[in-house]
Amino acid sequence: MVENKDAFSPKQLEFIKCCTKKWNLAHGSVRTGKTVCTVFAFMHAAYMCPDSQIYIVGHTFDTAYRNVVRMLMEAPEMAIFRPFCTWSGKKLYFRDKVITVLGAKDEGAIGNFQGLTISLVYCDEMTLYPESIIDMIDSRLSLPHSRGFAAMNPSHPKHKVKQWIDRSLQGDPNYYSLHFTLADTPYVNEEYKNRIRDSSTGIFHKRNYLGLWCLAEGAIFDFFDPKIYVIKKPTVAAEYWIAGIDYGASNPFACLLIGVSTGKYTQSGPIMWVEKEYYWDHKKREKQKTNTELANDVEEFLQDYNVKQIYIDPSAASFKTELRRKGMHTVDANNNVEDGIYKMTSDMKKGSLLICSECKNLIREIESYVWDSKSGERGYDEPLKRDDHAIDALRYVVATHKIAIYEPYKHNPNEYKNNRFKSSF
């Protein structure tokens, strides 16, 4: 199928040669070339497919475009297919085939798949789909030549896809799987591998670096040492300030002031720190504050600072209105819990997120923040919903605010070899 074998790592070639089952699954560590080889194999299957009942599925339509379609249009590994591909904005046209792109974010997306007959499907980030949609996609592979391809990072060990992987290892003829680790890829340098190893901890280290399917359990910030991550005062001057709010009408209300230095004027690189906190616990204070009163408190708390944005849970609609009436700029935060926790963990480990010592409630919450063991038993990764209000306020900021340090890592120029490929077709 591919004459230029140097274009791929040995593990990628192994997948391309062996992916002949009903379901073909690449799983393991981040940045190991899983997407490249699975998409290559999928596109070759699309060339051979007798019809256009072909689909690319992502967690959302946008992620499917970014992770799969855009890679087809830009990555050197896909040069063999690119002259025959046209992207319409909704569908991918490949030779005489039409490939439809769909999202599978939540249960509401199941209608995208009902009634379909699928000859070929590519599933990006498959562990993020609801199980009902995974079952629906699987049931649509009803033709003799139907096949599915998927690439994913590991999730919890009871996940539907992990069951398929286990079946493949037990010799089930319907499933093929291959496990990838960072050691398998020669296109990522040792500096990057060490950075992934050193910037993650706990579940994120096990899944993203080691590529293991494991439960989320124990302390979330198990590495947290106040001697390292807590400072008496900022070490550099803030170029600007931002804030995060976790709104609570009956639960505690938390607002954090966060200083940001992009590294433009220092040698320390980009860094941000939680400078101070406002924390109102209605029950402990034995006083219920109205939205207007809380908005007045936030205004007073932030008045001496040039705060660019206030990040807040999108569901706090009425309180956002109160803040906007006072001329404060609010931004709906990314409320993906796991994504936010991962970024907080990574930034702390890199030394680019620090906490000033006067933020007593935030420090206390970080030290007691744990995974919910009951949710883990049900197959979900969730923190225990207890004493997490200041943490949520910080999570909103870290997950949403865009400066250089929070952008996805750029591809290493050596990761994609600048080769043109020859093919048997």
Describe this structure in words.
By secondary structure, this protein is of the alpha/beta class. Helix content is 34%, strand content 20%. The protein is built from 15 helices and 15 strands. The protein has helices at residues 10-18, 34-48, 61-74, 131-140, 160-169, 190-198, 202-209, 226-229, 282-285, 291-302, 317-325, 337-350, 360-368, 373-377, 389-400; strands at 23-28, 54-58, 85-87, 91-94, 97-103, 120-124, 147-152, 175-180, 230-231, 240-246, 253-261, 271-280, 307-312, 330-332, 353-356. Strands 3-4-5-2-6-7-1-8 form an eight-stranded mixed β-sheet. Helix 1 runs parallel beside helix 2 (34-48), helix 10 crosses helix 11 and helix 12 (337-350) packs across helix 15 (389-400). The longest helix has 15 residues, at 34-48. The termini are close together.
Strand order of the largest sheet: 3-4-5-2-6-7-1-8
Largest sheet: 8 strands, mixed
| Fraction of helical residues | 25-40%
- Fraction in beta strands: 15-25%
Tell me the structural class: alpha/beta
Large-scale geometry: elongated
Overall pLDDT, averaged? 88
Number of separate strands: 15
Number of helices: 15
Q: How would you classify the quaternary structure?
A: single chain
Strand-and-helix sequence, N→C?
Answer: HEHEHEEEEHEHEHHHEEEEHHEHEHEHHH
Instruction: Point out poorly predicted stretches.
Output: 404-425
Over all CA atoms, what is the radius of gyration? Answer: 24 Å
Q: Note the gap between the termini.
A: 7 Å
